[in-house]
């Protein structure tokens, strides 16, 4: 029975979704023959005295007054629906252990159903599960429904939700509209509008305004147990939260579960350093409970642990702290770490205009450092740049930054089989470097159509089941070289087709021929790519290919960040034009460098 591993975008509502599945299953609305077992991974990690995940689940059944034998009957008959939520929220030290324990349950009870959620699927390569990437709200119905329910819940008239949606969808707020697709951020939009009757025009403004509104809810009443403590106002609350967020995210490697005693110490240190208050006079436990009670930004997990109620809040406070303390350049060491991507986006938005250019120069220099020093990778990128310059020349005035899109086309086609995608979302940014899988679908001309067939032929040679597709691709190459008027290459391909038929006659069937000869054909295709001066990965090892994939992915991150940033128009255009080409070579990687790979 296929199982599901759902990879969710930041703030897409994964926990709410799997909780709703558990509740609907319990109420008999779906999977009525199954028993839902919802396990929040960070809750398990915070549990004291629980040895294994299996023990934790046994305790759940014990709380339900279900005997161990009855629990085992549910499992062995395949009637359990396991919902493991937030696998990426596992502390580094426990990640492999938890992966092993989940895999063990999967193997022991294959007839049960499993749903595992994570923002980072690559961290948990579970066997026997189907991976699905769940995107945020797309429906025109979902967002208005959320907004109207939000305002109704807080006792507002329906007109309030309608007025908010009208403003949100007006041209002035195009830059923040995408936030509405993520439930946790749509909540901040509603909160911001409810408090201010308006929106900021930038995403970070929505974070600042919404979280300020939440922080104000923590200010003590006159009868509060901490009313006599000075300096417990919005600014102090936000500064305390920023210290907690950054300490655990930066210094403790993205830790999202905090020991309460350490949080209390951070609170006491803050008042000592900022307001010169003796730590003994500050009850960190009371302040922590007050923040939890009034705004819900921090939540307790038992008596020993706490965390931010949503990882997105921790990420924002981390970014804000880095910029406020002038340590934003520190993020360069984390560019390849997917867990830092949203923090890096937020940092890029928060940096003031006068510092943006130097920041992005450092960003680009760090990206280039991933390939600098490897002669083959540098040669690969130089071939991409040279080829894209030639292919884009007739079309340079037709489309902004066409050369960058063509670089992306060759980069993607060299790494994986170029396939066409028929449905592509309309870009909402000034320039959006496409995902690697989409790059071959965004630009097209006669030359690219022909080169696509060469790359397809090359990649088909890595696939045991593609002899027919390979032959058809070679036939299309005949037509391409004929169209280009390249008689010499046309004759080479004619010879290839003749050789294919000669070889096939020596084998019982085409599958046997393909298995015996496909690697030799890949060598021939690689030689053709080399003759044409096109980039290719033949001869690169897996580590080098992985390095190229990382180089593209963090260049995509750069594209996202400059669209969010305060860069000038000229600076933006210059940064886009530098994408997917080395602009910071090492001293010995000058113009005389051999391009041979």
Amino- and carboxy-terminal Cα gap? 45 Å
Characterize the largest beta sheet: strand count, sense, and whether it forms a barrel.
5 strands, parallel
Mean pLDDT: 86
Derived structural class = alpha/beta
Integer tally of domains: 4
Please report the number of helical segments. 23
Please explain how this structure is put together.
The protein has 597 residues and is an alpha/beta fold. It has four domains: 132 residues, 3-Layer(aba) Sandwich (Rossmann fold); 60 residues, no CATH class; 113 residues, Arc Repressor Mutant, subunit A (Orthogonal Bundle), CATH 1.10.10; 203 residues, no CATH class. The protein is 55% helix and 7% strand. The protein contains 23 helices and eight strands. The strands form two sheets. The chain has a five-stranded parallel beta sheet. Strands 6-8-7 form a three-stranded antiparallel beta sheet. A hairpin with a 3-residue loop joins strand 7 and strand 8. Helix 6 crosses helix 7, helix 18 runs antiparallel to helix 19 and helix 19 packs antiparallel against helix 20. The longest helix has 23 residues. The protein is globular and about 85 Å long. The C terminus is likely disordered.
List the helices and strands and how they pair.
Elements: E1 3-8, H1 14-26, E2 35-40, H2 41-46, H3 53-63, H4 68-76, E3 80-85, H5 92-108, E4 113-118, E5 129-134, H6 142-153, H7 158-168, H8 183-196, H9 203-216, H10 234-251, E6 258-259, H11 260-275, H12 284-294, E7 298-301, E8 305-308, H13 311-324, H14 341-350, H15 353-369, H16 375-392, H17 402-415, H18 446-460, H19 467-483, H20 487-504, H21 510-531, H22 542-564, H23 569-577
Parallel strand pairs: 1-4, 1-5, 2-3, 3-4
Antiparallel strand pairs: 6-8, 7-8
